[in-house]
Design brief:
By secondary structure, the protein is an all-alpha fold. It is built from 9 helices and no strands. α4 runs parallel beside α7, α7 packs across α8 and α8 runs antiparallel to α9. The protein starts with a helix and ends in a 20-residue tail after the last helix. The C terminus is likely disordered.
């Protein structure tokens, strides 16, 4: 891709990211083009569909969260790695209103432009969960799909103005329910502190 074309594409992605953060994933392509001060045809040359635009915008974030999981596998205890990654995912999903609905649909739709990235992200969470389970630090009756669903659920809470003030406390409760004591295998009491996002 020529340097000027890449610059134009990066500009469109930056504008789209800001628009989605403000209006949600249903923002119109026409509005994105207007904000970017280009014609709709120019936007469609780069991103022929809304999903193509979202895939390009979100792929970098998906890759970063997947890389974050690999980093935590080697730098943190199994339980800390799982909770910190879960928190990072929730923080990220609340930046783009409505993205969890797209992710939930894309994970089941092999034709979706977002499918591969969502599958990879779910697998990253499943590895962290399995590591914590092998260490006796996470309950054994949940799987990677449950972790993916919990991210969506917790992000939804953060999206609701009336519930957002409770989001951090509820995250701690959910995280505490996932973790177990190594000795007993039962869910831990108390609320682990939320991880600090990057």
């Amino acid at each position: 891709m020529r340097a000027d074309a890449r610059k134009n594409r990066d500009h469109l992605l930056a504008v789209a990211g800001a628009a989605i953060a403000e209006q949600g994933v249903e923002v119109s392509l026409r509005d994105v083009a207007r904000r970017a001060e280009v014609g709709l045809a120019t936007l469609l040359r780069h991103f022929p569909t809304r999903e193509a635009l979202l895939e390009a915008l979100l792929r970098t974030s998906f890759d970063e969260l997947t890389g974050r999981a690999r980093e935590l596998e080697t730098s943190s205890s199994p339980e800390d790695a799982l909770v910190r990654w879960l928190h990072d995912c929730v923080v990220w999903t609340t930046e783009y209103r409505g993205v969890t609905v797209l992710m939930a649909a894309a994970i089941e739709d092999t034709e979706s432009a977002l499918h591969a990235s969502c599958v990879t992200l779910r697998a990253a969470g499943a590895r962290l969960l399995a590591r914590a389970q092998d260490a006796g630090r996470a309950r054994s009756d949940i799987d990677g799909a449950d972790v993916f669903a919990l991210v969506a659920m917790l992000a939804w809470l953060g999206d609701q103005p009336s519930l957002a003030p409770r989001a951090d406390r509820l995250f701690g409760i959910v995280a505490g329910a996932i973790l177990t004591t190594a000795e007993s295998g039962h869910a831990e009491g108390g609320t682990p502190p939320p991880a600090t996002p990057r």
